[in-house]
TrEMBL record:
This is Glutamine synthetase. One of its GO terms (molecular function) is glutamine synthetase activity. Residues 178-615 form the GS catalytic domain. InterPro entries: Gln-synt_C, Gln_synt_N, Gln_synth/guanido_kin_cat_dom, Gln_synth_cat_dom, Gln_synth_gly_rich_site, GS_Type-3, GSIII_N. Pfam families: Gln-synt_C (PF00120), Gln-synt_C-ter (PF18318), GSIII_N (PF12437). Belongs to the glutamine synthetase family. Transmembrane segments: none annotated. It comes from Mesonia phycicola.
Length: 728
């Protein structure tokens, strides 16, 4: 009997839900482990407090002397909460967060010691940049990398460590992380959106982009996960036959949450409360053992940090519940994958959501302005938007089951489509008073009430308008949201800059009234960007053909999708916006294609090992049992034995055929890997991994899965889909 699988099954079947104690009121513990405004008021002098708040709100620099005061206050607060260490918490381009812990403790030289944390340690650190991906930036310049305090995201305590959110830059100032470009994109978007928002309300002085992510994930028993080398090392099953019952019945979606998972969620939510992550909803997803968690939206930079932190905390809490969280976009073939919907909007310092239709025609013109500009930005940059969500793991999800396709399109619903259709007919040039009244009353004025009936939500659209925000659904569940958010912010900023120039020109040169000019520019944008709007179902040939006719890109695989990131046009745009320079753009492209190759390389090795070391040996063992059986029948029945052994003989041959295909496939795959590894150019190598190596996966898997249903269940070494998806 294959021990590991059956031991794991036994363990998982014997588990009880882990008890969780909950506070009477969640609000009481909210933000308790965060150095938030309340904690700052208590631990900082007035000057220090004001300087931090000024940095948060206006991006001003913090004076070095004050930094010493702030660090002391922060340290005292942290120690009062039981912290012994501090770390600069940052987001290198590996995808997860990084930290290096230092103790507050320092010796004084006379045999005693004190707890120390100076302003310098708060503001700047020097981790070894060479151990993080840098796409050659380090080689070109200097080995040193710096982390620097980002006061806009508050420090927090995780376990016994004070974590200080920081940016990570090279000695020469190039971004080595996700946060720097994100912060730059938020700044430029703030400037551009504020200028446009002023057309409608002079009092607006700042526009924040907001993000509410929805994190999907799978939970499986920790012992079962540990029994599968593919899950341990690749976070996805590289083989495994589909179970007799999958998600066809849709009986999991919004069903009762299983008690082990529920207790995990309760504890997770407590931890989130302490860390100030405003989680709000939890529910089952479509696939068995798939769940979703969503917070109340926040300013983008903070929301991104919270999502990263959450993923970390989820891993830790799951361990205590003997569960394993799978963040992978497609852990199980044939079963729904996981995404991380990015709900995005713009909000002014006067408290207005710019993507929310308002109660007056003027407010609705403001809404339409930001709405149409976003659609236009996505249309002009659809390929770039696609590139922002490209990864080896997300490739499995896009275009499969419930997920959005690799073609970017925008869904706005039938009601808003009608509004845009009407606006398309607006007269060229100055509007007659009658036309204006009609527009205001019957088109723009009608928006709020019609939106309420806008219930035809399309779940497969990669980019959908959902009432008062855009929902970027194609983002993968493992992604750091910074990447897609940086690109979205940047393209919308650029679009709004252009819009302002065009409107101002009409007002100045054509002597148009401001709203006439806005209507005129919007009309042109609506016409120009029409091709990106798609209300239908995103899968299948029909849409692919239609999209091709419309000239929309359909980059199915990552190396292809990433190409646009290093296109001259893209680099120029990012340089002009000041979001990233050429060196940073090219470095990122290189890191991403390299990461793709490594990903496929690792998966290929794991698949080869499992197929050769697990699948083939047990298949031979089972084949030997059958052979013995046939020999026995021959002993009993002599030349008549075939009458009784014919089906056994068929299985014996089937097994041999599958083994042959698997083994040959692996040999060819290894050859393809060797050839790919010889390629110097990182992008070319990624294409080789994509087109020459990866296709063997399906072939090898197909035959392994066939063997899974032929071979005696008691011999099979790997936990099966039904066990991983339906146990507990
Ligand atoms: P659903 O999409 O599941 O129907 P909601 O519409 O309530 O649920 O919201 C989904 C997500 O969108 C939540 O994470 C929520 O915080 C976020 N969200 C709501 N309004 C905004 C906004 N103005 N900006 C960004 N995110 C938002
Ligand atoms: Mg949603």
């Amino acid at each position: 009997m294959s021990t590991l699988r059956f031991q794991a099954l036994k363990q998982s079947l014997n588990r009880k839900p882990v008890e969780v104690t909950e506070p009477a009121r969640r609000s009481e513990i909210f933000g308790k482990n965060v150095f938030n405004e309340m904690a700052m008021r208590q631990y900082l002098t007035k000057d220090s407090y004001n300087s931090v708040m000024d940095a948060v709100q206006n991006g001003s620099k913090i004076d070095r002397d004050l930094a010493d005061h702030i660090s002391t206050g922060m340290k005292e607060w942290a120690i009062s909460k039981g912290a012994t260490h501090y770390t600069h918490w940052f987001q290198p381009l590996t995808g997860s967060s990084a930290e290096k812990h230092d103790a507050f403790f320092e010796t004084t030289g006379n045999g005693s010691a004190i707890e120390k944390f100076g302003g310098g340690s708060l503001v700047q650190q020097e981790p070894d940049a060479s151990s993080f991906p840098n796409g050659g930036i380090r080689n070109t310049f200097e080995a040193r990398g710096y982390t620097a305090w980002d006061p806009t995201s508050p420090a927090f305590i995780l376990g016994t460590t004070l974590c200080i959110p920081t940016v990570f830059v090279s000695y020469t100032g190039e971004a080595l992380d996700y946060k720097v470009p994100l912060l730059r994109s938020l700044q430029i978007l703030d400037n551009a959106a504020t200028e446009v928002a002023k057309y409608f309300d002079k009092k607006v002085t700042k526009v924040n982009a907001t993000l509410g992510w929805e994190q999907e994930y799978f939970l499986i028993d920790a012992a079962l996960a540990a029994s599968r080398p593919d899950l341990v090392m690749a976070e996805r099953t590289l083989l495994g036959h589909a179970p007799a019952k999958g998600q066809q019945l849709d009986d999991h979606y919004f069903g009762a949450i299983p008690s082990r998972a529920l207790n995990f969620m309760r504890e997770l939510e407590n931890e989130c409360m302490l860390l100030g992550i405003p989680v709000k909803t939890r529910h089952n997803e479509v696939a068995p053992n798939q769940f979703e968690l969503a917070p109340i939206f926040e300013e983008v930079n903070l929301a991104v940090d919270h999502n990263l932190l959450l993923m970390d905390v989820m891993d830790k809490v799951a361990e205590r519940h003997h569960l394993k969280v799978l963040f992978h976009e497609k852990p199980f073939a044939g079963v729904n994958g996981s995404g991380k919907h990015n709900n995005w909007s713009l909000s002014t310092d006067t408290g207005v959501n710019l993507l929310s239709p308002g109660s007056t025609p003027m407010k609705n013109l403001q809404f339409l302005t930001f709405f149409v500009n976003t659609i236009k930005a996505v249309y002009d940059n659809e390929e770039l938007i696609r590139s922002s969500i490209a990864s080896a793991s997300n490739d499995h999800r896009l275009g499969a089951n419930e997920a959005p396709p690799a073609i970017i399109s925008v869904f706005i619903g039938s009601q808003l489509t009608k509004v845009l259709d009407e606006l398309e007919k607006v007269t060229d040039g100055k509007l007659s008073p009658q036309e204006k009244t009609d527009l205001k009353l019957n088109v723009v004025g009608k928006i709020p009430e019609i939106l309420l009936d806008n219930t035809d939500r399309n779940r497969t659209s990669p980019f959908a308008f959902t009432g008062n925000k855009f929902e970027f659904r194609a983002v993968g569940s493992t992604a750091n949201c910074s990447n897609p958010m940086t690109i979205l912010n940047a393209i919308v900023a650029k679009q709004l800059q252009e819009f302002k120039v065009e409107v101002d020109a009409l007002v100045k040169d054509e002597k148009m009234k401001k709203d006439d000019a806005i209507f005129n520019v919007l009309r042109e944008y609506i016409k120009k960007s029409k091709k990106i709007r798609f209300e239908g179902d995103g899968y299948g040939d029909a849409w692919e053909k239609e999209a091709a006719k419309r000239g929309l890109s359909n980059n199915k695989k990552t190396p292809e999708a990433l190409k646009v990131k290093k296109a001259e046009k893209t680099i120029k745009m990012f340089e002009e916006l000041g979001v990233m320079n050429r060196i940073e753009m090219e470095a990122r492209h290189e890191i991403e294609v390299e990461e793709y190759s490594m990903h496929i390389q690792i998966e290929g090795r794991i698949l080869g090992d499992i197929a050769r070391n697990h699948v083939i040996p047990v298949s031979i063992r089972y084949q030997n049992i059958l052979i013995k059986n046939v020999q026995g029948l021959k002993d009993i029945y002599g030349s008549d034995f075939k009458k009784y052994a014919s089906e056994q003989l068929v299985i014996i041959e089937d097994i041999s055929n599958h083994i042959e295909k698997i083994n040959k496939g692996i040999t060819q795959m290894i050859d393809a890997r060797r050839a790919a590894n010889k390629i110097e150019d990182a992008e070319e190598k990624a294409f080789a991994y994509c087109n020459e190596v990866r296709p063997f996966f399906d072939e090898i898997r197909y035959h392994c899965d066939k063997l899974e249903i032929l071979v005696d269940d008691e011999l099979w070494p790997l936990a099966k889909y039904r066990e991983m998806l339906f146990t507990y």
